[in-house]
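lol ok so funny story. i was supposed to be doing the assay writeup but got distracted and ended up predicting the structure for this chain instead. priorities right. anyway since i did it might as well share w the group, maybe its usefull for someone
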Amino acid sequence: MTDADFPLLSVLIALPLMGMLVLAACQHPRLAKTLALAFALTELLLAIVAVWVFNPDNEAFQLVESHVWIPSLNIQFLLGIDGISVLFLPMTALLTLLAMGASWHNAQLPRLQWALLLLLESMTMGVFSALDLVLFFLFWELTLPPIFFLMGLWGIGSLRRSAATKYTLFMLFGGAPLLLGIVLLAVNHASSVGVVIGSNLSFSLPVLLETALPDTLQTAVFLLLLLGFAVKIPLAPFHTWLPSAAMEAPSFLAALLMGLKLGVYGIIRFAMPLAPSAAVEYSWLLGIFGAITLIYAALIALRQTNLRSLLAYSSISHVGLVVVGVSSLNMQGLQGALLQLLNFSVLAASLMLIAGFLHHRLGSTEQVHLGGLAKVMPKLTCCYFLLAVASIGMPGTSGFPAELLMLVGALQAHPSLGIMGLVAAVLAAASFLSFTRRAFLGPVSLPRIAQLYDLVWREKLLLVTPMLLVLAIGFFPNTALHVSQKSIVVWLTRLLAQPKLEGEVADSR
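and the output, tada:
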């Protein structure tokens, strides 16, 4: 591990909390929003600095900070990043900035709303930075309160409070097996060093990675962690909270929920490397659940008549393919999965923001209330179409290298799952293109559509950065892939114990 000369990760976690306190003290809503935007922009710049100082050729954890937190339980305030986690920091900051921009004109309790957004940003940064499992679990659970209140107070549907409660109950259900799995890991460490359980527990990820875990216990730990993270991903049958949230939550929050796939990150960071033998043994189970989610959600997406609901089920289908890529346990599948998770931050979130722009103008995103939008809103249509074709993996966009890598990895490891991925890609294209044809093309269907105004400058500014990222990653994917390569080699080596893996990876490039 490489210690940090400056506590950059702590600053990334603390800065949004400081902004939240400043907003609490500020009595002028306009000034409060300006200050919140300044804190979010500063957070993005610091996250970019973290990527800048990160050395992708160093496979160890970097920018590591370690402080004693709860000595009696040996719990540490332990932070660090590697190639798997580093790019999620600027993506989280960018999504928060986009969410703030999208809710700029919200007149209902703006100070509270933006304070909750900053709190959510802080906790999410902690999730991606924590290397102590208890600290990770703390950040993980503390993402619930801001989401609950943001959905319940600023939701757009009549069932918003029900959707907020449903989301919270699902996440609390997933948190129970997570906590139990973490405790089992710590107890096993105490037993392995031959001391009384409770006197030498360890929740440090680097320490637990070096602690032998019996095969029987590995199975229990892996399945517990998998269950906890599957709820957040979400995998079928735990997926129902996302369509409800997409329909009832404000668009900026739905964009965050669809853009930040913390559950898959948890599987890659904790579940599989901490129980490597069980992860390899049950990789088929992970792949099957991913494939079921992939096909099931893609078929439901074909029947959707609401843009928000379509985006929700499309997101669930795409994350199913990501899980299939992770289950392939090869370089192509893992790199494609990580790249697709970054794509979610850009594509799914931006498409949901566009749905929010339409809802703001029309009060609905139902297909029956749309039609001929390209004639009256050509700029919005162009933005939507670019992001939509990127979502279905069009060459030249960021979706293409990600899906190609995942499909190649799946075909190498599980040919049947790879074929299911190809089928789902066709279904995804059919659902998006069918909805686009009916909602955006053709004659103007309703008089009020003819009176709509196109994107204003603020909305254009919000969409330009994601669109540039989509094209940049599409044409230059190796820039992002290089960042994660060394860390993925270490990850795969731990699971598969193949000493020639790095040479094989170099050959595959």
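The CA atoms of residues 8 and 49 lie 9 Å apart. The first helix runs from residue 8 to 25.
back to the writeup now i swear
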